[in-house]
Specification:
The chain has 242 residues and is an alpha+beta fold. It has one domain: Trna Endonuclease, Chain: A, domain 1, CATH 3.40.1350.10. Helices cover 41% and strands 26% of the residues. Helix 1 crosses helix 5 and helix 3 runs parallel beside helix 4.
């Protein structure tokens, strides 16, 4: 157990502490999904990768409103749908964990709404036969001040692939932005850049889509810079006496 600054509360059972190859010490709080970097003077907050891309996802707010409205017309509360999606993601990641451990998931252990997704990731695993390098590991960019937790790093045919598993209704460009931010942080914090990055999109009918990302560092680096500029602008605006 690390010696945390006195200003920080102790780690909870699901919280994580990591020391990255470049010397950064990062704390992940599972309860609110936040990251902090330990410093000589205490700690500083880090933006999460998911929060960064959500801030610059064009049409994000309107899309959520439309989604919630559509559910309402069908008699479904948006919180119920959100929680169901969260449960689906947890179940499919559990199936992926079983594959990583060398066990083929038993479809009988999953409900009918989940079995298609589990079949999809099993099909991908058998097709590409990846070899595990690491999974569910934390990375943090030392100067752009963001952090995130990566799904999967595997070797496929001699190349290191960084892979993120998605079960959403459709693929979004922001998924590729996320992957680009992860890859850049891996490089900058000393974990090592992957050779290639991809999104594994599991579908409810048992099919999957494996999409390689081709985003560039100079593009995704603009995301945390833009978010910081927006935050600075908001702070300055609040100081103005209108």
């Amino acid at each position: 157990m690390p010696d945390l600054p006195k200003s920080m509360k102790p780690l909870g059972p699901n919280d994580l502490y990591v020391q990255l190859p470049d010397g950064q010490e990062v704390i992940y709080r599972d309860g609110n999904h936040t990251y902090r970097r330990i410093t000589d003077n205490g700690s500083t907050p880090l933006k999460s990768v998911s929060s960064l891309v959500s801030r610059v996802d064009g049409g994000h707010t309107d899309g959520l409103c439309e989604w919630a409205w559509k559910l309402g017309t069908e008699g479904v509360h948006w919180k119920e749908s959100r929680d169901a999606k969260a449960g689906l993601g947890t179940a499919v990641h559990a199936a992926l964990e079983a594959l990583v451990q060398g066990t083929v998931p038993d479809l009988g252990d999953f409900d009918e709404t989940t079995r298609g997704y589990v079949t999809a990731i099993c099909s991908w695993w058998l097709d590409d036969q990846p070899e595990l390098i690491d999974q569910e590991f934390i990375v943090a960019h030392p100067t752009l001040d963001y952090a995130g937790r990566v799904d999967l790093l595997v070797e496929i045919k001699g190349e290191k692939w960084l892979i993120d598993l998605k079960t959403s209704n459709k693929l979004s460009p922001k998924f590729h932005w996320q992957m680009g931010l992860y890859a850049m942080a891996m490089d900058e914090c000393g974990v090592g850049r992957p050779d290639r990055i991809a999104v594994l999109h599991a579908l409810p009918d048992g099919e999957f889509v494996f999409v390689e990302s081709v985003v560039k560092d100079e593009h995704v680096a603009l995301i945390p810079l833009c978010v910081k500029a927006l935050d600075d602008l908001n702070k300055a605006q609040k100081a103005v006496d209108l």
